[in-house]
Design goal:
about 400 residues, Aminopeptidase, Alpha-Beta Plaits, 8-stranded mixed beta sheet, 4-stranded antiparallel beta sheet, globular
Length: about 400
């Protein structure tokens, strides 16, 4: 069977795959609630990984374990097993364990902290073996399901990098699974510099000096100067402020402030130039204000790209079209960068549609989940059929 006929066969099967996935809605939602209600701040994912492995252990056709980085790994063995397909979803969220992680379900939606990023992605992995069995799909390749730990913040994809650095298995390709948005199709990742600036005012600081205003105004000056840095439109580059903290009360002089931010660019050289400029700014403001300044790099990622014309990207667009999913072509800032850096063809997709509430909870729509699971199965079939080789 030639490539076009094989891809068309997958396309004809997608409506049935979607219908079967929709019939498993209760199981998918049960996994979403089970995993979503277990807090998993980055570096504290152990309980969530255990729940996921317990779900995999219920299927005697799956070999599952936790590796030395705490990743949850499950292997669905293929008929031949000479090649492997990697599906990865990060297990951690950006929310602390103290938040109420109760998931509120209605007939139309699910709402809770971190559901879109990335409890829904994990629920998709947890449900996938049962879906493949219900569809009577037997793969030639082994299917590796990876719940990656320590992906967020300063951990810089630590769990995934550990897996990739120690992997000895030949990988046909990979799909990075996000909870939302459906239609997301990322074939490239931007370069990233994640950093923080900390300003401290020593106790022996001379508050009688003209203009002595404490750590907050010093940080304000740093922000103002960073905002004047000229950024190119090509390659696309931006500085995104993430958090700022400082001060305790009206009656206390602020002695410490911190600022965290990301520098994003399609060019590694541009990121390095911006980094040098920020280093100079922090030093300059420190000298003028006599504050103690520190500029700390939390993580770096290089830009990486899968060519838009690559067969994997082409297959993904075909599958989206057959399922009436409008592609949202956008860069990915997460797992995709590490997988592409390792030389593995990969894309990132989203399972369902949704948005974020004012309280930073994710509100996921239930109806599109079946279609999202069908796109995932379609990509697996394309990879397993050898249709995504360059």
């Amino acid at each position: 069977m030639d490539m076009e006929k094989a891809l068309n066969k997958i396309g004809r099967s997608l409506p049935q795959i979607r219908d079967v996935a929709e019939s498993m809605r209760d199981e998918i939602l049960a996994n979403l609630v089970l995993l979503g209600e277990m807090p998993a701040p980055s570096g504290g994912e152990e309980a969530r990984i255990k729940l996921l492995l317990d779900r995999f252990a219920e299927n005697d056709m799956i070999r599952s374990y936790s590796d030395d980085a705490g990743n949850g790994v499950a292997v669905v063995e293929g008929d031949k097993g000479r090649s492997n397909i990697l599906l990865v979803a990060h297990a951690d969220t950006s929310f602390p364990a103290r938040e109420d992680h109760t998931v509120q379900l209605s007939s139309e939606s699910a709402c809770g902290f971190g559901l879109g990023d990335n409890s829904m992605g994990l629920a998709a992995l947890a449900t996938l073996p049962a879906l493949l069995r219900r569809l009577n799909i037997s793969l030639k390749s082994n299917l590796i399901l990876l719940a990656a730990t320590k992906s967020q913040g300063a951990h810089d994809l630590e769990g995934l990098r550990f897996f990739l650095n120690n992997n000895q298995l030949p990988l046909l390709g990979a799909v990075c699974v996000d909870g939302m948005p459906q239609g997301k199709l990322s074939t490239h990742s931007t370069g990233l510099l994640r950093a923080e600036v900390i300003c401290r005012v020593p106790r022996e600081y001379d508050w009688t000096r003209f203009g002595a205003t404490g750590a907050i105004m010093a940080m304000n000056e740093i922000i103002n100067k960073i905002s004047t840095i000229e950024l190119p439109t090509r390659p696309r580059t931006s500085i995104v402020y993430a958090t700022i903290h400082g001060g305790t009360s009206f009656s206390t002089v602020p002695r410490k402030t911190s600022l965290s931010f990301n520098v994003l660019s399609e060019s590694e050289e541009t990121i390095q130039r911006v980094e040098r400029r920020i280093t100079d700014i922090v030093e300059e403001v420190g000298i003028h204000t006599r504050g103690q300044m520190s500029f700390n790099i939390l993580c770096r990622r290089k830009p990486a790209e899968l060519e838009f014309s690559h067969p994997l990207a082409r297959c993904a667009r075909y599958i989206f079209d057959k399922l009436d999913i409008e592609p949202l072509i956008r860069p990915s800032g997460s797992e995709l960068s590490a997988v592409l850096e390792a030389g593995i063809p990969a894309v990132t997709i989203g399972i369902t549609e949704g948005d974020q509430t004012d309280g930073q909870q994710d509100n996921l729509l239930i109806a599109p989940i079946g279609r999202g699971m069908a796109q995932l199965v379609g990509l697996i079939l394309a990879l397993d059929g050898g249709l995504c080789r360059a």
